[in-house]
Design a protein that fits this description.
Blueprint lengths: L1 E7 L3 E10 L5 E6 L2 E2 L5 E3 L4 E3 L3 E2 L2 E6 L7 E4 L4 E7 L12 H11 L3 H15 L15 E7 L4 E7 L2 E7 L2 E5 L14 H6 L2 H12 L5 H8 L32 E11 L2 E6 L11 E3 L19 H14 L6 H16 L4 H16 L9 H16 L9
Antiparallel strand pairs: 1-2, 1-14, 2-15, 3-8, 4-7, 5-6, 8-9, 9-10, 10-11, 11-12, 12-13, 15-16, 16-17
Helix pairs in contact: 1-2, 6-8, 7-8
Length: 397
């Protein structure tokens, strides 16, 4: 599941997203250069092939390591897009586009939010949506909603099969949290699956908190939120899925925040930030620069010691065995480092790397697991799957 929100003000637009997916499904930050393509070229997306265009824009993407498409990203023109699963009664195309493919296609091919909305609608209606969407469950399919923004405006797009509805966000807060909300399309929703995904409660929580968002740092606070209590509240049904910072653990539905993104778009330009890791409640947002690509490694569904995603994920999993073991100095240190990086992004990656190395050493000596038996059982299964090897191969961006 996911939470994506936008705050539209007179002088800027703030966009933020938590990408929630399978806990072993590593997500990676990729820089993709602008390119020219020969006439007649064809493009293979995740499962579907379509005609390539003559020119594609430069991008920064956060994508599941095995997909061509992306959960969220930005292009060189200041367009940002994120997608989310929605559960509908409409049919799937046998070999359609994934929502993540549509995100990337729109970023590659458009230079404004208006153009992106038009292209998203065209792609959905022309190619349809279909194909394997999930890492752990080959049969899992869903349709998509999208949040599209640039420095002037934001749009919500919701789909059910090839049906599309759009809504412009002219001022204030708007969130999408895995539910159909635009009148006329919401009647295609599957209520039970939407309920299990905790769509309404998460959306209400996000929109309430986002009313106080006025900066990148306050947007980060929304993405790190666990609800009324500081610690995540777990359910045996769907884990900790009642608030934007999602932690896996449900025996029926299991999803986890595996990467987070914030963009601030204004007349002075665009600034983009991403965690590149799970658990925004514990992690650090790093600055993204189109002129300086970063190597985040090649993570897959199996642990490694070199990729940014798995290094932090192993730390995260050790901490969650007994969160009370983490000293109070951690939160103080994290806040200090994040505040410094937001204030001056120069050297932000190096500062974040030093911070991670310090706390990796601390977490190497994990305490005994104090979680409930059913939660320990769930995470033992997750660890066995990861240790057995990746379920899907790496795909180059």
């Amino acid at each position: 599941m996911c939470d994506t929100f936008v705050v539209v003000d007179t002088d800027r637009v703030i966009f933020a997203k938590n990408s929630d997916r399978d806990p072993n499904e590593a997500q990676v930050l990729n820089w993709v250069a602008a390119r020219d393509h020969p006439p007649g070229a064809r493009l293979r997306c995740t499962w579907h092939t379509l005609p390539q265009v003559r020119h594609t824009h430069a991008l920064i993407l956060s994508r599941p390591y095995w997909m061509w498409g992306a959960e969220m990203g930005a292009n060189e023109h200041g367009v940002v897009i994120g997608n989310e699963a929605v559960f509908t009664r409409a049919a799937f195309a046998p070999e359609g586009l994934l929502g993540m493919d549509i995100v990337r296609l729109a970023l590659e091919r458009t230079a404004s939010a208006t153009e992106a909305v038009e292209l998203v609608c065209e792609l959905v209606q022309t190619h349809g949506q279909g194909g394997r969407c999930a890492y752990g469950n080959p049969g899992f399919r869903y349709h998509n909603s999208f949040l599209v923004a640039d420095r002037h405006q934001a749009w919500v797009i919701e789909t059910a099969g090839q049906r599309v509805a759009t809504e412009r966000v002219t001022r204030g807060v708007r969130a999408i949290s895995n539910g159909l909300t635009i009148p006329g399309l919401s009647r295609y929703s599957r209520p039970l699956r939407t309920l299990i995904a905790a769509s309404r409660s998460r959306r209400a929580r996000v929109e309430c908190l986002a009313r106080e968002v006025h900066s990148t740092s306050t947007a980060a606070g929304v993405l790190a939120d666990h609800g009324p209590r500081p610690a995540p509240r777990f359910s045996i049904v769907n884990g900790a899925m009642q608030a934007p910072c999602v932690h896996a653990g449900g025996l029926i539905a299991a999803s986890q925040t595996v990467s987070s993104w914030i963009s601030e778009l204004g007349d002075q330009g665009a600034s983009h930030w991403a965690s590149g890791t799970s658990a925004p409640c514990l992690g650090i947002f790093r600055p993204l620069d189109f002129n300086r690509a970063r190597d985040c490694g090649h993570p897959t569904g199996s642990p490694d010691s070199s990729s940014l995603w798995w290094r932090f994920e192993l730390f995260h999993r050790r901490v969650m065995r007994n969160p009370g073991h983490l000293p109070a100095s951690y939160a103080i240190d994290r806040e200090r480092v994040q505040r410094a990086i937001f204030a001056d992004p120069r050297g932000g990656w190096e500062i974040a790397e030093d911070w991670l190395e310090r706390w990796e050493r601390f977490a190497a000596n994990a305490e005994r697991d104090t979680r409930p038996a059913w939660l320990r059982f769930y995470w033992r299964g997750v660890a066995r799957q990861a240790d057995a090897g990746a379920l899907l191969p790496w795909r180059d961006p």
